[in-house]
Amino acid sequence: MDLDQQTIDRSSLLAIANQMIAEHKDFFDGMATTGVEQKGEVLIFSGDYFLDEQGLPGPRSTAVFNVFKFLAVELSPKYRLEE
């Protein structure tokens, strides 16, 4: 574990992530993360990807994917989920 990483509980991390989403330039109403997993050193965020009726990516899906990737890049070096 990186000495600069802080161990954090899931709900606290989701609160931080959702605040960052709300401040992101690509934010739109309804965009939020509802889950997070630790995969090795990377935090993987999940939520509604706004898929269409056939389960395919919709117009907003790319923005959601990019914002969740942004969260992973920004937060993974800083935090590790409590086990």
TrEMBL record:
It holds the Pfam family DUF2498. Gene3D superfamilies: Protein of unknown function (DUF2498). InterPro entries: DUF2498, YciN_sf. It comes from the Bacteria. This is DUF2498 domain-containing protein. It comes from Pantoea coffeiphila.
